Amino acid sequence: GSSGFRVVPMDGKGFGVVAEKTFDAGDLVYQEAPLIMWNVEDATKTQLLNLVAAIAVLLSVFLLVAFNAVGFTPLPLAAAAAFALRRRELGMPEELQEQYEQLSSEEQDQLKGLSDCSSGEKTMMGILRTNGFSRGASSSSSTLLLCPVLARLNHSCSPNCQQSWDEESGQEKLYAMTKIQPGEELCITYCDLREPRDKRREVLRAKYGFLCSCPACCHTDIETSDARRTEIARLQENLAAAQPADGVEMAKRVLQLLDDEGVPDLMLRGLACTEAVRHCETLSDPQQARSWAEKAYDFFSKARGPTSEIAQDAKALDWALDSQMSDDSSRMSQLEVFTCHVPKPGEGRTSGRKKPEEFELLH
Ligand SMILES: C[S@@+](CC[C@H](N)C(=O)[O-])C[C@H]1O[C@@H](n2cnc3c(N)ncnc32)[C@H](O)[C@@H]1O
């Protein structure tokens, strides 16, 4: 309502999020602090410890029975194992259970109401896998975030929004990537959009349990669509190592293909522009380099906000190039600074949906 969107039942998709007002590309649609932040790696360690405790208890029971050595039974170990084996609500691992118990009962209900795409009984782990975002841009991030409102965003292969984790505010943010009209559904991507349709469908089916029939998947000329997406992936892969003059043309081609394919992905666009900056540098064409740096800033500031690190880096790069037009000294260092913060293409949403190991929404 007051946020400019509403969570409503959608045909064949459970709930979804629909715009109630107009959004422009780059508008911050919503930001939400996660109710759960769950680190998969820490949890694995705890599971291991629990396993050790359980083995220890079995061993002590064995000692007890075998030698009737009641007096030597390691009671602390038995206690640890009992702790490890206690029943957990909704089958949650301990850390998750602890965080869950800190929440108010309304918040708990909110989480329990989220969808679980795994078959069988609903579990908190299933809810986390279906709805969790991975923290940070990296697909290797092992922390899953559960945000009950943003969890209602459905998937599209030409999404109009993009979510990202903002470490500074501790919030997951949703930006509009295109102009969005009232009544339009807000969608993000759960998968790598540069894959062909059948591959995307396979991933979405396996991780999220649905057959994608978004407009891009129902494209009448799916071969052309697949060819474009495959070419985008190939160009991006070869962009950095290309000959400078080719590299600039390849960056232009990436932007053109994204337009043709109706994929507004502003991060992919921004990344292509930063490669073009580098190539123009090599070609000693600071004017062109600046114009690409400006484009990169524009894309990144719409995708992540103008004060985001990646947008600020692009701006700093533009300034460095500007001063380089009269003084050559500061530029390399700026380019290096920038490189550090740029995520690799394809690192995005799900991980949950990236498998906890792989893409950003967990979705
Ligand atoms: C993170 S939830 C999204 C919100 C969900 N629709 C709900 O009702 O809470 C992910 C689940 O939504 C459904 N979903 C998401 N995008 C979809 C789409 N494009 N078509 C059909 N179902 C979709 C799938 O069941 C998926 O497992």
TrEMBL record:
The entry's keywords: Membrane, Signal, Transmembrane, Transmembrane helix
Region of interest (Disordered), ranges: 342-363
Keyword Transmembrane: yes
A matching Pfam family: SET
Ranges of residues in domain SET: 3-191
Transmembrane segments: 52-85
Stored SMART domains: SET (SM00317)
Compositionally biased spans, kind Basic and acidic residues: 354-363
Name this polypeptide is given: Histone-lysine N-methyltransferase set5
